[in-house]
Amino acid sequence: MFALTLLWAVAQEQAALLATQLMEMLPACCKQREANLPPEGGFGWVVVFAAAWCNGSIFGIHNSFGIIYMMLQSDLGDGEKDPALEFKTAWVGSLAMGMIFFCSPIVSIFTDRLGCRTTAAMGATIAFIGLLSSSFTKSLEVRYFTYGILFGCGSSFAFQPSLVILGHYFKRRLGLANGIVSGSSCLISVPLPFFLKMVGKAIGLAHTFQVLSALMFIQIFLCLTYRPILPPSCDSQHGGQDKLGSRSVRQQCWSQTRKYFNLRIFRRKTYRIWAFGIATAVLGYLVPFMNLVKYVEKRFQETKKDWILLVCIGAMSGLGRLISGRIGDCIPGLKKIYLQVVSFLLLGILCMMIPQCRGFEGVIVICLFLGLCDGFFTTIMAPIAFELVGPMQASQAIGYLMGLMAVPMTAGTPIAGYLNDYFGNYDAAFYFAGVPPIIGSLVLSVVPLVHQRMLKKQRLDSGKDKMLVSETTVNGELLPGCPASEARM
Percentages helix, strand, coil for the chain, rounded to the nearest 5? Predict the structure, then answer.
């Protein structure tokens, strides 16, 4: 009896001690969990400003290439007219824009391994070097490398981390932050064509490249604000390293490849159709941006107000980006794709209407709607990726999509330049630019229908439904752009 009483007393003492320890641990766990949540503001607004500057400076320069395009042709000299000059010059801007998308899958890997801050600063530095070195040469072939490759690659490495870092500071307000970044970036891209037109005449192309390089030089320092605040799970990392240590070199290489290149998203039929539709639609996407200024000069002899076209496109694109995010939030599921369907369909029709304009004012009206379509397509792309593959796989899904867009987007403008040289006018180029967006919109309209059919099959087979749910939630414990080495800083 005495022994039972003693055991009961010891058990009560141990239970009380364990309860005390648990009560002490709970506040610490709650504080740690609260510390890992995005602050939904604070220093995050400084990051939003830096990301907006990045978007505005990069895409402002790329979208204003119509002005640089004319300056490049003038810089090459009009004395010896090359019949393929339009085609050759178009490759400079086309390469730069294409490299942004071509490098995106690689940039996502660098962002996960090195972090947003290091990757973005490295990209801004490369872009700065590319623009600055473009001012020291008059060779078109050299500018293929300095402007097309260096500036294009640097832009890609600087741009993508500016989107990823927002997830570290915003969750509930992430849509608002993305809308502000996309919309406010037009504060730079809207007046930039007018600025380039004025500065180009005053100081020439070489010094204009130097002025543009200053925008990327500022971006180098703004990238230092991309400090990740959500730490990764170190235990899962070490556990993965211990498991890899027991495998062969070939198994380790394949495991690392599958870890950083998530190819499972291509198993989804809806994602494959969506990616193919987008890649098809962007074949003629850049043709209006590159050729409108030169077109109105030849067609309407308008040289003093031609910059208004790019300003109209930039302003309406910013408005479209601000309102499309809100509209997309009101549309459930994959029905958001219909916004892209309408955008591409209108884009194709508007491109074909440009040669039918009888006055400069008609081209301005078309440019307003072109900018609106651009804003809707750009902003709604990320929410659709989240709906298709889930939040944990959306980062690389966007990266792969932009990589697939690289080839048609790069080839579209040189093809239009070749048509300009062959026919001696821009009509065929604009008709060509209108066909791919219309075809792409028809392909995209199939995605919600295929998705509904897949849902019906899943309801018939609950086992498949469970497998799909588990597949969307498993993608590691690391938030993109937050490596262990940078999270501790």
Answer: 85, 0, 15
